[in-house]
Amino acid sequence: MLRITALVAMAAGLAAAEAPRKLPYVYTKWKHFTVAEGLPNDHIFAVKADGSRVWVGTENGLALIDSRTGKVRSWTEKDGLPWRVVTGIDIDPKTGDVWLALFGGGLARFSGGRFDHWHQLNSGLVNDVVYGVAVENDNVWAATTAGASRYNLRTGEWTIFTEKNAPMEEIWNYGVHYGDGKVHLAVWGSGVLEYDVATGRWKDYLDPDGEMEIDLYRDDGIIHVITTAAHYVEKTLWVSSYFGVCRYDGRNWRGFFNQDSGLPSDFNNNLKARSANEAWFATDKGVGAVVDVATNTWVAYTRDPKGKSGKAVVTRDKEVLETVEMETGIPHNYIIALDIQGSDVWVGTSKGLGWGVGEGYYPGLKERPPVVARERGDRP
Amino acid sequence: MKLLACLLAAGLLPLGAAPKKPVYVGARVCGSCHAGKGMGNQYSRWLHSRHAMAYAALAKPEAAQIATISGLRQKPQEAPICLGCHATAFDVEEWQKDDTFHMEDGVQCEMCHGPGSEYMTESVMRNREEAMKAGLRIPTQDDCMNCHIEKGSHVAVLHTPLVDIRKAWAAIAHPTPENAKPGAIPKAKVEARPGPRYIGSAACGKCHRGEAGGHQWSLWRMGPHARAWAVLSTASGFQQAAKRGVEDQFSDPRCLKCHATGFLEGAAARTETATIDEGVGCESCHGPGSEYAVEAVMRDRPAARAAGLAKSPRQACAACHQGAKFNLQEALRKIAHPTRPAAPVDGAAHVRYKTPLNLAMRPGGREIYVACEASDSVVVVDPARKIRVAEIAVGGNPADVAFSPDGRLAFVSNRHDDTVSVIDAAARKVVRTLEVHDEPHGVLTDREGRLLYVLNTSSDDIWVFSLPRLERVKSLSAGRGPWSLALSPGGEHLLVTNMYANFAFRAPFDAEATLIETGRGAVEERFKVPGANLMMGVDWHPSGKFALTTLNRTKTLVPMTRLLQGWTITNGLGVVWRDGRVDEVLLDEPNLGFADATDVAITGDGRHALVTSSGTDRVAVVDIGRLLAVLERATPRERERVLPNHLGMQAEFVVKHIATGASPRGVLVPPAGRWAYVANSLDDSLTVIDLVRMEASGRIDLGGPKTVTRGRFGERLFHSADITFRKQYSCHSCHPDGHVDGLSYDIEADGIGFNPVDNRTLRGILDTAPFKWAGTNPSLQRQCGARLAMFFTRLLPFTPEQLSAIDYYITTILRPPNRYRALGARLTPAQRRGKLLFERATTNDGRTIPAGNRCITCHFPPYYTNRKVFDVGTRHPLDRMSKLDVPHLNNIYDSAPYLHNGMAPTLEEIWTVHNPDDLHGQTNDMTKDQLNELIEYLKTL
Fold it and tell me: Nearest-CA residue of chain A relative to B515?
């Protein structure tokens, strides 16, 4: 089923390729969800796992996949979804309520089968073009094209954050994420803004070199002020942009580019961090996952544009360690959304949703021969 | 300095900037220039006026009566509604008051002229234009009328005539003489004398105030002693001075020895807080207080005496009150200021009923706890002996009660206080009080006693607490007005009823039954109940296949006057199936309504359900087997369209009606046993029902008063359907517990859909006349008399006696305290900015907003209405009227939808959708964050 050609660029030749070496886990089993499988639309804008349930935001509706049964349910405007385009999803961990960012339609809550709708006319939401949503304790944050809004579920108070009261040089908010006491906003033209929930203070991360087209000085800070997503995991901030991606561990910045890493493209729409050591990036040329920061080890997942097959390329710096070819790859190379569900990963593309099943997943690197999958029959 | 520091702390000033926000400085600061002949004695004339006593007057027993009929539970001196007209700057933050300002000085200069810090200097005040630029306001008679407009509450108690504002204006006129020469109130000397010094009555008043202190300070302030200095400036004062050859009575010791405190001892005998303008203060009789006016000393009488507290204060009287006409005993009686509070003037107003609402049996079956709304208590009943055995004080307006599964704890929701009292059932004592959200009602634990659920009916959420730690762990979104909840037989689910229908403007609506999965403590499903509102009671059938809920089916799309066709409000049951299907049936008979179906309980064998009708004082016994048979034999279309509206179908499954006491609310059917119990809310009793014979078998007296006051009589009328044609509904049906049902109605027979009007709350409405959205009903008597009969009940109107009683009761319906701001509490930064917007006079780009288009002009405190009618551009194509009553804004957050016809589901939409031409205030120049801030402030009113 699986055809593996381990292309190891080593002077030792093929025999050396069989020798165990530290390699990452590679997702080789991909399932696709499209309109044919029950999604309301193939343009996947958001994906969010909640236990065994996976919520999917599309250009024309919301879907729910039960990953245990594979059963798909969907909601469009005729089913009460307040707006057709769902660009962001977050789950309230306490109540299980699903919060939806609606591109042009504001914000919605899906709770017990009921949609509640907030927009700029019936509420204090600053703008109806909402890219992302994040639940922070009793607050819901919305990243909009005219600033960020925070809705306090306890008091009903709406607070707007713009250039007036936050270090927001531009107000076009692309992404919002809450983790470990901090809210991070990815802002087009204003880098990443960090809001400390405990103190109510803002901190901004801007590109120190101030250059638009180039990252003049490596690892001096965020690589570019036009950011698309920020995730804060294990005290580590991961940032994606249209000019590469970067990581900040609280002391040091590190940038990753297509030219010196396994990142498939510098044009990144989104990211999902699994840990301080592993993050997945949604690019216009496939999925890039840095799986070991110290060694700059990446796995890039792409699909053959002419067919269903795909491949995973394992690299260290720019050295290709392994290429795994698969009969079924990710659904499309234009990636918009990502999420991680335990060992599994979900990839939202411009033509369908991909589910990478992570049987035997392990984090980081593990001593294994590049061709070990051949011995197991279906897995590297 | 304090002002600057506070402003900086409040975030209103950048560092280095000069203070620009005006603060209140107090009348005495004004008096520092405006005293004396050269200024026309303006200060002393004020001090001698009733304005200066306005705060103190709130200590009168009559003020408590007025508060009662204004729906207030707070003491008048602590109630924003009262302080709005009886004090200055009642709604400002602490930093907006300088140390020299004292709210106790009543209606002061700055009430009319605005906070004085920015214009008070002599150099500014000598130029009227400059002073006005700096904030000086010159009030008009209209401004005065914002407070002096006739108030029903004051007329009812004080029988006050209409204020003739022209006469009143003349009476308080205080013109500045042409050759004005600022005077001054003599000040204390910096070099103090040794020994006791005078500290002023305000210092005494810090302790000797309030009901617990017999309102001693207020009694003094209202008495002639407090005006002894000020009286010197009256015509009589001048006459007396002339008679005695005194040239300046304000400095002559012959006058001031008896018209001021400690004058003869000189300025060195006074501390800075003691000024002679307070007249004959406490220390005139009790001696200078600097050494004894400490609580620890005052509580030790010998120590206080040793520190200078006069032993025989009466002796001081003789020093000034000489002459044969003076009767010491009579004078002492007049100025008596005992520590013991005065007896209430109207004894009836203080009769304390129980008003039992809901009840629960303690596991084990030996006790029933009854939540009694009016007595702020839980009455404990021994069901075996059928007697009341104890009463436990809890929080304000307890509504519901539940036990932990082990029976050790009881939880009582206190609707007025926003708390849950946790009672140790063995000790019969409140051991903890949980803060919850707005107006908690239903309360219940899961079967394992792992989580406690509290339904906050006014904030539309369900708070979940972990047990036994009683920590809040989450808040679930409910429907509108979550009310009651019941645990499924297996314990896997809770079903929550929601009082209010989901809003839909001039369209069919539905209500929600919320299903909670107890394992996750999360909402699993929300069932829509078409056409229903006021879903209140709920109980699960032992099979677990369905639950029954009570409900009303209110027809708001057709005129209320269609009462004769039974087309207004019908009452019945919802059958909520576990799979989400919902059936509805009516309990009304064609000729007799089952008004206000309130609670339901199913017998342990699952054969019968008992349903209370608080409007007709009955319990319906439903044969559940027959009910299910009716449903099963009906077609799907009949179940959807016919049965929910069928007035004759109840004969198929209601097997009996059992008479109860007045206004039955909660019903308790223990899982085993022969007896059921019904809480008769308006005669303070339980009706015991024999479940074998299905008949009332006894009454348990909960110990309430036996007299029926006018208020109680009115309360019964309000909750009784006797007034409506075929007893279809009561006042309570549209105004549950005196509030709103969240619907808008088509009332008059002027064509279907014409002139829809939003339902308005009855909480604390007496002083907001006129009534109706058109503002055409000047009084409650008219509203509840002829108008009620004509448009709502289609029966003979209330008799005069009934009308008087029901109107009185309506005035006493409690207005809950504001949930967003307690009196004097700091505003949040957003609220603070919103307040500036509410009061602003210029647009963002500096244009002047005409006075008539400023929020504060029409929505003037304390009710935030000027009680007039205006066209704010909200006329709907189906409306007949353009000019609308200015609604009061108190607690505006809890009475959605908004505008006269309820077309604005949220406050935001009033301006984002319905104010395109800035006719409803100047708002279109506001940014989105400004509008948010304005709304944050509105919620604090």
Answer: A112
Question: What pLDDT, on the 0 to 100 scale, is given for residue B186?
Answer: 73
pLDDT digits (tens, 9 = 90+) for A234-258: 999 999 999 999 999 999 999 999 9
Residue in A with minimal Cα distance to B915:
A121
Q: Is the pLDDT of residue B179 over 90?
A: no
Beta carbons within 10 angstroms of residue A244's beta carbon: 23
Best A50, A79, A122, A130 residue to mutate vs chain B (most B CBs within 10 Å): A122
Look at residue A2 in the predicted model and tell me its pLDDT. Answer: 41
Q: Do B932 and A158 touch (CB under 8 A)?
A: yes
- The number of angstroms, rounded, from the C-alpha of B575 to the middle of its chain's C-alpha atoms is 36
Q: Report d(CA B251, CA B563) in Å as an integer.
A: 76
In this prediction, residues B295-305 reach a mean pLDDT of 91
- In chain B, what residues touch A130 (CB-CB under 8 Å)? none
SS3 B405: coil
Query: Is-contact A87 A99, C-beta < 8 A?
Result: no
For an interface test with A, the pick among B476, B911, B926 (most A C-beta atoms closer than 10 Å) comes out as B476
What is the distance in angstroms between the Cα of B516 and the nearest Cα belonging to chain A? 9
Q: Is the domain defined by B829-938 classed in CATH 1.10.760.10?
A: yes
Q: Are strands B409-414 and A352-357 parallel, antiparallel or unpaired?
A: unpaired
What is the rounded (10 degree) CA torsion for B765, B768, B774, B777? 80
Label residue B159 exposed, middle or buried (CB < 10 Å: 0-12, 13-18, 19+). exposed
pLDDT reported for residue A353: 98
User: How far does the CA of residue A326 sit from the closest CA of chain B (Å)?
Assistant: 40
Give yes or no for residue B316 having a pLDDT over 90: no
End-to-end CA distance of chain B: 30
Q: Read off the tokens for B555.
A: 């027809």
Listed in sequence order, the residues at least 6 apart from B20 whose beta carbon sits closer than 8 Å to its beta carbon are B13, B118
Return the HEC string of A264-286: CCCCEEEEEECCCCCEEEEEECE
* pLDDT, average across residues B20-39: 89
Which residues of chain A does B929 touch, with a Cβ-Cβ cutoff of 8 Å? 126, 159-160, 162, 164
Q: Which residues of A touch B (CB under 8 A)?
A: 94-97, 109, 111-114, 116, 120-124, 126-127, 138, 146, 153-160, 162, 164
Does the distance separating the beta carbons of A138 and B475 come in below 8 Å? yes
Residues B754 and B746: beta-carbon distance below 8 Å: yes
- Rounded Cα distance between B934 and B836, Å, is 8
* Global confidence as pTM: 0.91
**B188-339 and B829-938, same CATH topology:** no
Domain-wise residue ranges, chain B: 22-185, 188-339, 714-812, 829-938
Q: Which residues of A touch B525 (CB under 8 A)?
A: 112-113
CA atoms within 13 A of residue B328's CA, in its CB half-sphere: 10
Closest in B514, B909, B935 to A112, CB measured: B514
Chain B residues with beta carbon closer than 8 angstroms to that of A138: 475
Domain B188-339, second-level architecture: Orthogonal Bundle (1.10)
Interface contacts (A, B; CB < 8 Å): 73
Average pLDDT of the segment spanning A179-206 = 97
List of residues 6+ apart from B170 with CB closer than 8 A: none
Is B929–A97 a contact, with Cβ atoms under 8 angstroms apart?
Answer: no
Nearest chain A CA: its distance from B522 CA (Å): 5
The minimal CB distance from B526 to the residues A96, A113, A156 is found for A113
Mean pLDDT of B909-924: 96
Predicted pLDDT at B546: 98
Residues A323, A332 contacting (CB under 8 angstroms): no
Which distant-in-sequence residues (6+ apart) come within 8 Å of B333 by Cβ?
Answer: none
At residue B793 the predicted structure's pLDDT band, cuts being 50, 70 and 90, is confident
